[in-house]
Amino acid sequence: MALHYGIANMNHNSSSVTSAESISRPLDGILVIALEQAVAAPYCTSRLADAGARVIKIERPEGDFARGYDRTVNGESSYWIWINRGKESVSLNLKDNADMLVLRAMLSKADVLIQNLAPGATERLGIGSEQLRKDHPRLITCDISGYGDEGKFFGMKAYDLLVQAESGLVAISGAPGEWGRIGVSVCDINAGLNALIGIQQALLLREKTGQGSGIKVSLFGSAAELMSVPYLQARYGGKAPERVGLKHPSIAPYGGFTCADGRDIVISIQNEREWADFCNIVLRRPDLLADERCQNNASRVKYRDFVDGTVADIFDKVPSGEMIDRLTESQTAFGQINSVHDLIAHPQLLTKPMKVKGKDVEIPVSPWMAPWDSEIFAEAPQLNEHGYKLRKEFAG
């Protein structure tokens, strides 16, 4: 697999890379029909496509609205190219009988149907998951919704930021003061990952039983599961985590501190051995080890103002270069607060090229790396790019 490291390695030399095309991929031969839009379902199906599945994306005549989110990547949407790579696109009007026949022909041969249309939409169209699995017992269906199939919130529109707010994620994130959004579409992405897990497990189960399964994923449920620790702390401990900015609500010291030259560094102390090394080598305050306010993590959290204040005072007097040397010597975990441009040039960043309108674009690699990964990302399709071919293949 061809990997690129930061901005200094933007030129791809495919001749020096061993091709993965001859390696069998785990989902080769699997046909996925995707009635999808926006982020959650497309994230899932793009990863299925990476693993070898044939993904046919069904789009409205006007296309998936994520195509229009921005025009930053050679005139294409950054969202679009990121999570629609390697798919085939066909534009179908599902209220048209002829187009519905095309879709039904596809479903008769499909292994997986995934959809994140409005709640109840597929049932109204006569292609609800339960009925389809009766018609095609080996079919695996995955329905992604905002709030699930029942309850007073059924049918409500659910976009990422709305679910961040509704689930309590916003209430525990960021610093005191004005509310803030988590900087990426975390609810959408996590729902897509959960759908991916469910579909892969259903495929494994079908190998044993010969029967398909119905997978259901909600954005709210995915966000609520992420909130398990705050939920348990509030329900059984009586106190929810507060918004503490670049601090950890349950561990101290764990957070951001400003060095003498204005550079911010985040440090983390996870156990008493690390605390001792931190006091001796980084802070050069071995006396803190005998201070009752610092005896263990519970004490340090209780007296956070003293602990964090002491750490902040010392950081404020030491330039970042020297502080990084001390942190490295003590093996204290730390990270610098980088900008997105810092990420682009980061020595640990791995990217792969994708063609977008004929030009190479570098995209971060998938976080799981496997022998079957290709050396380049497949292109994201133009609207209805494969429409004629697919109609001919499935409907004659």
Task: Give a description of the structure.
The chain is of the alpha/beta class. The chain folds into two domains: 4-228 and 350-395, Crotonobetainyl-coa:carnitine coa-transferase, domain 1 (Rossmann fold, 3-Layer(aba) Sandwich); 254-336, formyl-coa transferase, domain 3 (2-Layer Sandwich), CATH 3.30.1540.10. The protein is 37% helix and 15% strand. It is built from 15 helices and twelve strands. The strands form three sheets. The chain has a six-stranded parallel β-sheet with strand order 4-3-2-5-6-7, with helices on both faces. Strand 2, helix 1 (40-50) and strand 3 form a beta-alpha-beta unit. Helix 1 crosses helix 7 and helix 7 (186-209) packs across helix 8. The longest helix has 24 residues, at 186-209. The model is unreliable at 4-20 (pLDDT under 50).
